[in-house]
Specification:
The structure is a homodimer. By secondary structure, chain A is of the alpha/beta class. The first copy, chain A, has two domains: about 120 residues, Rossmann fold (3-Layer(aba) Sandwich), CATH 3.40.50.720; about 200 residues, Dihydrodipicolinate Reductase, domain 2 (2-Layer Sandwich), CATH 3.30.360.10. Helix content of chain A is about 35%, strand content about 25%. Chain A contains twelve helices and 17 strands. In chain A, helix 1 links the parallel strand 1 and strand 2. The longest helix of chain A has 17 residues. Chains A and B meet through helix 5, strand 12 and helix 11 of A and helix 5, strand 12 and helix 11 of B.
């Protein structure tokens, strides 16, 4: 079978190498690779590199297209046109999937091809497929996840190696976990996309990714870490969603977890996703949320499912969901105010907490 | 599609109820239920209960058979004859799968039917299917798991609620986590079967379940818990296997883990299975390892995969494996000797440790 790879960055190279090296994939041939950078020809075989998407999307021999460019509008257009031309699409693009999951699913179904996006959430963790299976006989109650390796790495380093925020960020960048411009990660936007994708699958409807509450860790300081550590808590940046009759309480924010919480064991660049479902009870998935090979592994696994005719698990949009924060939800909070004061509140409602947000520099909800 | 359930115990009732209640399974009909206990007729519809397996295995309308009797020879015979009569088989029977996985897989393949056993390890945790997928392009390096809910519950209660062993065991029995005769759980035999099944799938060969080293927690006392707790360790009963060129170092024994280890967060009756693979790196699966609905969920999920033609992931036996403990492996050990002395050793080899085993009442390998 012939395939094409759109984008020869970190993940694209991982896919290319795995197809090249794996005995199990010996019948797969990479026919074309889309990339504007001509110097990448040296990695490839003659004739594989092109900078013209039309060459790929109009090639009848190409049956499967990997989209790993990480663009927004261009990626969306490529995915859409590939599906319309009856090619299976496998993507890691969380931004596009969070925005267009419903539309792209419909196009895939109409054209009787697969749309696979295991790698869009949790990198190498086999998560989307089990969740699509799970919802067939379960009602999912809630999802709570550490979904971003960069911020989790920074928080782990601050806590364990007593680094301040800028040192930990620098280390993350040196290790290749944080991008040169890490804003989307630090502000929680990356997690917003991921928790939105998981929640749409879990609760079987559409959510507006742009309406999800988020508060990141850009303002965290070492004094926050140490204050909570002395009380037995670790800070984690968490995406969560709770389903209450199709009203979805979804948020991304720092939380304080104690040692007894399984999420406290999710450290360094790892991800951990906790799901509670009606029949299956509590589940957690843990693994590398990013990185060349774990992520490429997820994309290749999607391809194997397509090859074995198992790629027909589509997102179902049967519920009308609304995003609604539970303003009566009571929690204790750790708060550092703009004036530097640090406190632990009594149990207060979400409403009471939000009313103070303008005065707050950093906080963590205690769970 | 018509199905039969062999055994109407805790799990069998769970399967029966899920099929009855789930909209997704409305086309599935339970035609027959095998159970010797006539009083169970009251739970079922007229004509469903039978005590005669021949009625089921010779019924051409029955396409799928759930085996949840938990017997040994009789279960094995029923599974084998069902496969030979071209019926798909779904079982939770870890004893039979550990002993006969290779033979039963061959019979299933010959007869072009599925043999599914997701529920045999880790209860409701979706684990076997991902592992069978994983090995297509990964070499699995090692597996480390908390695979028994009963013992993990006892250890958690001893540690967190300062109970002694007999109190914790009684509590586990009251909660329904421990059987009246809990020996197989306490001695680690249940875990031996599970780690053997996972290891055979992961390393693609056969292992002799009867040759697996195991040391359980029958002799544990509160003094062991508290001694290690003061040093920052929790005791867990763990099954592990490491692959070194098809020589498999497999064992079930108590280990001491610190707070930083993800397995320290696996508490109460939960299971956690950690897998390290060549491409996918580190993964962990966490969830309810037992219980009516989580386990029935796994069995029903197997059925859905068969219904959707995804039940063709067979165990592959391509490697000649041998069980061989790594006698040079160095670890620290917590040891309580027969005379009551408690020590932490320096790093010693496995050989040095094993030479003292006759004098040891309880121990935990420190990892």
């Amino acid at each position: 079978m012939e395939v094409a790879i759109l984008g020869l960055g970190t993940i694209g190279i991982g896919i290319y190498e795995l197809i090249d090296k794996s005995e199990y994939l010996k019948d797969i041939k990479v026919k074309k690779v889309l990339d504007k950078d001509k110097s990448k020809e040296s990695i490839l075989k003659p004739g594989q590199l092109t900078d013209n998407f039309e060459e790929i999307v109009n090639d009848d021999e190409i049956k499967i297209i990997f989209e790993v460019m990480g663009a927004k509008e261009f990626s969306y257009m490529c995915i859409k046109r590939s599906l319309e031309n009856k090619k299976h699409v496998i993507t890691a693009n969380k931004e596009v999937i969070a925005l267009y999951l419903d539309e792209l699913t419909k196009i895939a179904k109409t054209n009787k091809v697969s749309l696979m996006y295991e790698a869009s959430v949790g990198g190498g963790i086999f998560l989307i497929t089990p969740l699509l299976e799970c919802v067939k006989i379960n009602e999912v109650k809630n999802i709570v996840g550490i979904l971003n390796g960069t911020t989790n790495y920074i928080l782990t380093k601050m806590s364990r190696e007593n680094l301040d925020f800028s040192e930990a960020l620098k280390l993350a960048q040196q290790k290749g976990f944080a991008e040169a411009n890490p804003t989307a990660d630090l502000e929680g936007l990356d997690i917003v996309r991921k928790i939105t994708i998981l929640s749409m699958i879990a609760y079987k409807g559409i959510l507006d990714v742009e309406k999800v509450y988020h508060f990141g860790i850009s303002n965290i300081e070492y004094c926050d870490i140490i204050f909570l550590k002395e009380l037995g808590y670790d800070i984690k940046l968490i995406g969560s969603s709770f389903n209450n009759n199709n009203s979805i309480d979804i948020a991304v924010e720092p939380v304080a977890v104690d040692n007894y919480n399984i999420l406290s064991g999710v450290n360094e660049e790892f991800n951990g996703i906790f799901i509670e479902a009606s029949v299956n009870d509590k589940l957690m998935y843990y693994g590398k949320g990013a990185g060349r090979y774990p992520t490429a592994n997820a994309l290749i696994n999607d391809m194997i499912m397509i090859m074995e005719n198992k790629g027909n698990n589509y997102f179902t949009n049967v519920n009308k969901l609304t995003i609604k924060e539970d303003l009566d939800k009571r929690s204790e909070y750790y708060i550092r105010f703009n004036n530097g004061n640090q406190i632990i509140t009594d149990e207060i409602t979400r409403q009471e907490f939000l009313s103070q947000l303008d005065n707050i520099k950093f906080y963590a909800r205690i769970i």
